[in-house]
Amino acid sequence: MDVCPPVVVHPPESDGGRRLTIHGARVGIAYSLFDVLDFLHCTGLPAQDRAVDDPELIEWRVGGPYVWNSTA
Question: Which helix (H) or strand (E) element contains residue 37?
Fold first, then answer.
């Protein structure tokens, strides 16, 4: 049985921001990897214990943690 990661970073939008959802709830727009880490910290998820490319923590849709423009 597959378990979905709690965090989803959606594809880049035209302004370079990426919508971020945690446990299915929209939490905001991230404009950098630092924003993603800040959102994780504010919600209590253990980002410091795991890599941002850990598929059990974050699902990166269209590109990974270093893609921040809509031409990906």
Answer: helix 33-43
Model confidence, pTM: 0.84
CB 18 within 8 A of CB 29: yes
Residue pair 26/43 in contact by the 8 Å Cβ criterion: no
Q: How do residues 7-32 score in pLDDT, each as one tens digit? A: 999 999 999 899 999 999 999 999 99
- Sheet of 58-60: strand order equals 25-30, 18-22, 7-12, 58-60
Domain ranges of the chain: 7-60
**Across-strand partners of 20?**
9, 28
- How far apart CA 70 and CA 63 sit, in angstroms, is 10
